[in-house]
Amino acid sequence: MRSDFGGEKLSYENVVHAVAGAVGSVMSMTVFFPLDTARLMLQVDDKRSCRSTPAVLSDIIREEGLLAPYRGWLAVICSVFCSSFIYFYCFHSLRAVWGLQPTPTTDLMVGIIAGVVNVLVTTPLWVVNTRIKLQGANLQNANIRPTCYSGIVDGLVQTVRGEGLGGLWNGTVPSLLLVLNPAVQFSVYQGLKRHLGGDTTELSSLQVFVMGAVSKTVATVLTYPLQTAQSLLRCCQSSDRQAQNWNRSWSLLSQRVRTQGMLCLFRGLEAKLLQTVLTAALMFLLYENIAHYTFQIIGTNRDT
What we know:
Elements: H1 12-31, H2 33-44, H3 53-64, H4 73-97, H5 104-134, H6 152-163, H7 172-177, H8 180-195, H9 205-235, H10 244-260, H11 269-298
């Protein structure tokens, strides 16, 4: 069944894919949120002595309380929902509108385009929620100034006032490069799915979980240095409303590489792999099941 308004682009199928992907992302991120908190601390706080995920989480809980690993949860969840909805909707809509056959090449191409749209629209949300997650944290890196945002809207307003409109797009360059992450992840996932016959037969929950884990592992390892750069640039602030804000951010990153070596860009990879691989695996499992049962209820044939 298609919606008369907008044809292919606004089809019920594409909306179902988008909602299923967004809900699955929110639920899986909530389950593994503390691991993301540990990852962020390891990436941006290079003065912290502990280097393992359990040690960082232990420090955070001891210093800031039991709920500290969930600091900034609401802001992140709102951003995750918007980001996932836009990505899944663009991916399936573009493939349907252009009449592309599902192949690894077309999946990668469409995934990159959907990722670019997603980055340009949602980067302000991610800049603000990265800073909110660091509020109240016991940071030992003097280069990162704490913020005091009451929420996403307040964060957006304060960022524009203090850094200009361009401050909302801090980290956009590595974010645009990072569209390769979900693009690689989605193309690997779709390739594995086709290899196992998932386009014509129903896969088991275990198969979907493993496919999600494998695809996210490949994407994360390939793009992790860019993710470290992205986190540093998002939390970096400047009162200068001009280009010096970008120069200061990149200076901070290059200084870290010069003093600590290239491996510093992989700090927190353990936490990131643990968090994103488990999150992606659970997300794809929830996404497939939500979409499957929704299509069964509304009696619509599912797009592959």
